[in-house]
């Protein structure tokens, strides 16, 4: 599938960025992973594995393969894989590019339809940012023959500030279907990015969990969100009502989603992965034994009850 066809397949669709279920020892229980993948796959239009919500760059090769296989088996719609440099390759552009291409090869071998390219650390240097960003996306796509999307991520999570001019140039490339936006709190940057992506002929894909409804109103064409890692019905209703031009339904869906987002996407922000696993636990699509995130910071014990209560309000 070329990038234009892939963009068409994503338009108006809800893509989940699922978590990776683990037990207290950090292990993946295969049956729990498969059950979770089946539940998420049934509730969304497509899936992006190995994203930040999944701790994708922290997964081992064996874990990465297991996650991709589970979601490929449960997802009829588009399946993306997020690819970025391994920690031991960070710092040098050439090493990062090779590392990303290797993950891309694994993704293609496992049946991914497209790739989302993490903003690599070597792209931060202003002088070389534009040329290296374009080259990273083009060469990763060429290495496996799959379309790619960019990833505009907020700086506190390791993002690189792709300016509007770079976004226009990036999405004008035939290999690039669009860009996922995850600016978190910067409404102006999100709006400017959507306008630039459209100016370049690309698909603006919202990943704005705390500005989900507004980003659709600003012109986002599709969604790829971590808040759909559980309680997919909340995100699905927001998308359905917006694209159906159901104003009253959209307002009600926005209010429901905001209650859930307020409980899960908050400081410390890296704790959102654990909070979404708690939502999945409360929803009954994950057992308590597999609702752990070993890579995030330790959260206050009372947060779990608050997250469960927020889910109960949206159920």
Structural notes for this entry:
The protein has helices spanning 3-10, 30-43, 61-74, 93-109, 126-144, 164-171, 187-199, 212-217, 232-243, 247-264, 272-283, 302-314, and strands at residues 14-16, 46-49, 79-83, 114-117, 148-153, 176-182, 203-206, 222-225. With 315 residues, it is of the alpha/beta class. The protein has a single domain, classed as Aldolase class I (TIM Barrel, Alpha-Beta Barrel). An eight-stranded parallel β-barrel has the order 1-2-3-4-5-6-7-8, surrounded by seven helices. The model has no long low-confidence stretch (mean pLDDT 96).
Beta strand %: 5-15%
Compute the average pLDDT.
96
Total domain units: 1
CATH homologous superfamily heading: Aldolase class I
Predict the CATH topology: TIM Barrel
Which structural class is indicated by helix and strand composition? alpha/beta
Q: What is the helix tally?
A: 12
Radius of gyration: 18 Å
Pick out the low-confidence regions: none
Protein name: Dihydrodipicolinate synthase family protein
InterPro entries: Aldolase_TIM, DapA-like
Keywords: Lyase
């Amino acid at each position: 599938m070329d990038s234009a066809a892939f963009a068409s397949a994503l338009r108006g669709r809800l893509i989940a960025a699922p978590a990776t279920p683990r037990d207290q020892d950090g292990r993946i229980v295969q049956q729990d992973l498969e059950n979770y993948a089946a539940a998420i796959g049934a509730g969304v239009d497509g899936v992006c594995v190995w994203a930040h919500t999944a701790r994708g760059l922290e997964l081992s090769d064996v874990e990465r393969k297991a996650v991709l296989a589970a979601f490929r088996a449960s997802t009829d719609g588009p399946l993306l894989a997020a690819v970025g440099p391994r920690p031991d390759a960070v710092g040098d552009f050439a090493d990062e590019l090779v590392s990303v291409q290797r993950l891309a090869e694994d993704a293609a071998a496992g049946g991914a339809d497209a790739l989302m390219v993490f903003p690599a650390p070597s792209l931060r240097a202003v002088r070389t940012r534009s040329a290296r960003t374009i080259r990273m996306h083009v060469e990763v796509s060429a290495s496996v023959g799959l379309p790619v999307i960019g990833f505009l991520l907020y700086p506190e999570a390791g993002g690189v500030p792709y300016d509007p001019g770079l976004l226009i140039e990036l999405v004008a490339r035939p290999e690039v279907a669009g860009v996922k936006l995850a600016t978190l709190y910067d409404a102006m940057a999100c709006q400017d990015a959507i306008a630039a992506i459209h100016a370049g002929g690309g698909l603006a894909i919202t990943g704005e969990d705390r500005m989900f409804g507004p980003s659709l109103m600003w012109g986002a064409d599709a969604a790829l969100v971590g808040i759909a890692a559980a309680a997919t019905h909340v995100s699905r209703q927001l998308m359905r009502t917006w694209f159906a031009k159901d104003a009253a339904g959209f307002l009600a869906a926005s209010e429901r989603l905001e209650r859930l987002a307020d409980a899960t996407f908050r400081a410390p922000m890296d704790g959102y992965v654990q909070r979404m696993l708690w939502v999945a636990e409360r929803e009954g699509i994950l057992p308590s034994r597999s609702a752990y995130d070993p890579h995030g910071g330790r959260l206050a014990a009372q947060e779990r009850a608050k997250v469960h209560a927020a889910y109960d309000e949206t159920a």
